[in-house]
Write a structure and sequence with these properties.
The complex is a heterodimer of chains A (217) and B (308).
Chain A lengths: L2 H13 L6 E3 L4 H12 L5 E3 L4 E2 L21 E2 L2 H9 L6 E4 L3 E2 L5 E2 L2 E3 L4 E4 L6 H7 L2 E5 L23 E5 L3 E5 L7 E5 L5 H5 L7 E8 L1
Parallel strand pairs in A: 1-2, 1-5, 5-10, 10-11, 13-14
Antiparallel strand pairs in A: 3-4, 6-7, 8-9, 11-12, 12-13
Chain B lengths: L6 H8 L5 E4 L8 H9 L5 E4 L4 H9 L3 E6 L11 H8 L4 E4 L2 H12 L5 E2 L8 H4 L3 E5 L6 E5 L6 E9 L5 E2 L7 H7 L2 E9 L2 H5 L5 E3 L6 E4 L17 H10 L3 H13 L4 H7 L1 H7 L15 H8 L1
Parallel strand pairs in B: 1-2, 1-8, 2-3, 3-4, 8-10, 10-12
Antiparallel strand pairs in B: 5-7, 6-7, 8-9, 9-11
Helix pairs in contact in B: 1-2, 2-3, 3-4, 5-7
The chains are: A alpha/beta (217), B alpha/beta (308).
């Protein structure tokens, strides 16, 4: 992805964050998106990290989700078990960021293997906390380049699966796909200016539905 | 009774070949000094368990200590792969047991609480149960759907690095608490490694910070900078430069062998490691100051008196 495409993706993700939300943030681009949202339109966004930090006000971009800068001056720290059971499992997260190598029609995510599990073409890091986050968060944001190999009809391995009652939003450099609460598959909801429905569909390995109120950003 | 001993004796006494091992720390307070001593003593066939194996288990795998790794997230945070573990898995030299973060911490908690199993509803609908035989399903007796369960984990030994401990093993820490309490209570034997050894009076001045009581601890080791290249909140920062260097170095088995020679085998103990890295460790210790406000617990005698 070009630097420009990456910036566009970060900005688009930032726009999905609303003020006063409790946001579970990962490192890298999700962190940047959350900070941009705080600076632009959501000053009261509360940042929560899987490592147990709540209400972090990091000074520098952390390399890991447990960096000291996420803890100093935070509102709270808790154990990872409490974070998973009481905060994530308990449904306290409004929006969470997770990463994925593959995203399928149903909104299932794969961050475990490309190919067969026993003899993978590519071994990826695994779920980490993604399974719990997709199960617990009200909305999940995935940032991904729009590339055909990343959008199969069915992922090779279901590392994490969104709940029917939650919302899954896939923010890419060229379009936004979303699976709203109660729906059973991803739908094209937003196009970057200059993109066409056909061009986006060509990057997805299934017949992509298009929302009736398709927006252009 | 003091449980203070050297790292050499703690590893010698508590880590057997073939043991299942948990070195705690979720990014914060990872017990690297313990790992380096285990490598130095040439332990083999270990079954390593951590939510994130991190560089600490990549190092132990590269050094030939491991036969199995159980994990939730197999990566070098923010930097891609753990190359030594990947190579060993691909070569068929290392078994791996896949969890999610939530199911691994639930398994530890179930182990520490002596539960028969722990429910892990978040893995329903994922493929985890297909690849991890320690995850099974039952029909909920309270109606509703099938619920995935995870088998409890009881590691043979855990190393838990903390800010401070008294000689008996009353261990206190602050900042990110990670998995250290769950690891400490789940393991059959527990070695606390501490940045500082303090008197029992210091522990009693702030009981709210105790994460492991002495009765859960078998040995105590004084290990200042014992988490490096991980960090100890307020004492020294994470050595991101080391993690980045590892990301490159670990691609090359020969470079790794040299690295392990220089950083582990050529040094007699952790004190020598600290001396070797004195300049960098002092640099990492310039973390500034942001002390907590003291809190008041009240005196026992006077509190009791006013209640009557």
């Amino acid at each position: 992805m070009s630097a420009e495409a990456r910036e566009r993706t970060i900005d688009a993700a930032a726009r999905w964050l609303q003020d006063d939300e409790i946001v579970l943030v990962g490192v890298g681009d999700p962190s940047i998106a959350a900070w941009r949202a705080r600076a632009a339109h959501a000053p009261n966004l509360q940042l929560v990290y899987e490592s147990g930090a709540v209400g972090s006000i990091p000074d520098a971009s952390p390399l890991s989700i447990g960096d000291p800068t996420l803890v100093a001056q935070a509102l709270g720290t808790m154990s990872v078990a409490d974070m998973f059971d009481l905060v994530i499992g308990g449904g306290r997260i409004d929006t969470a960021f997770v990463g994925a190598a593959q995203i399928d029609r149903r909104g299932c995510l794969n961050s475990t293997v490309v190919g067969e599990y026993a003899h993978p073409k590519v071994r990826l890091p695994g779920s980490g906390g993604a399974a719990e986050i997709l199960h617990g968060a009200k909305r999940v944001l995935v940032m991904s380049p729009l590339e055909r190999r990343r959008f199969p009809e069915q992922v090779d391995f279901v590392s994490s699966r969104p709940r029917v009652s939650s919302e899954l939003v896939v923010v890419t450099d060229r379009a936004v796909l979303a699976r709203r609460p109660g729906e059973d598959e991803l739908t094209l909801v937003e196009l970057v200016a200059g993109e066409t429905v056909e061009a986006v569909r060509a990057e997805v390995q299934w017949e992509l539905r298009v929302a009736s109120g398709l927006r252009t950003a | 009774m003091t449980k203070l001993m050297t790292m050499r004796d703690a590893v010698g006494e508590h880590v057997d070949d073939g043991a299942s091992l948990y070195i705690s720390g979720f990014t914060h307070l990872i017990g690297f000094a313990a790992a380096r001593e285990i490598i130095r003593q040439g332990r083999r066939g270990l079954r390593l368990i951590r939510m994130t194996p991190d560089v600490v288990y990549d190092l132990m795998t590269a050094a030939g200590c491991a036969r199995e790794v159980a994990f939730g997230y197999l990566g070098n945070p923010g930097l891609g792969s753990l190359h030594a573990i990947r190579r060993a898995i691909e070569a068929g030299d290392l078994d791996h047991v896949e969890y999610t973060h939530g199911s691994l911490i639930a398994a530890l908690r179930a182990g520490g609480s002596d539960l028969p199993f722990a429910p892990v509803p978040a893995v329903a609908g994922t493929d985890l149960a297909e690849v991890n035989p320690r995850v099974r399903r039952v029909r909920s007796p309270f109606g509703g759907e099938d619920v995935p369960l995870v088998e409890p984990l009881r590691p043979d030994v855990a190393f838990v690095h903390v800010h401070r401990s008294d000689p008996q093993g009353n261990a206190q820490t602050w900042g990110g608490l990670g998995d250290l309490k769950e690891a400490g209570f789940a393991a059959r034997r527990v070695v606390v490694t501490a940045e500082e050894i303090v008197s029992e009076d210091v522990i009693r001045s702030d009981p709210g910070r105790t994460v492991l009581p002495a009765f859960a601890v078998d040995a105590v080791v004084h290990a200042p900078y014992g988490a490096h290249p991980s960090f100890a909140q307020g004492l020294y920062g994470r050595d991101n430069r080391y993690y980045r260097r590892w990301a490159e170095l670990s691609r090359d088995p020969r470079a790794l062998e040299e690295h392990i020679g220089a950083e582990v085998h050529d040094l007699p103990d952790h004190e020598a490691y600290v001396a070797r890295h004195g300049v960098r460790l002092r640099e990492l210790s310039r973390v500034g100051s942001s002390p907590s406000e003291p809190v008041e617990y009240g005196s026992n005698r006077e509190t009791a008196a006013v209640q009557d």
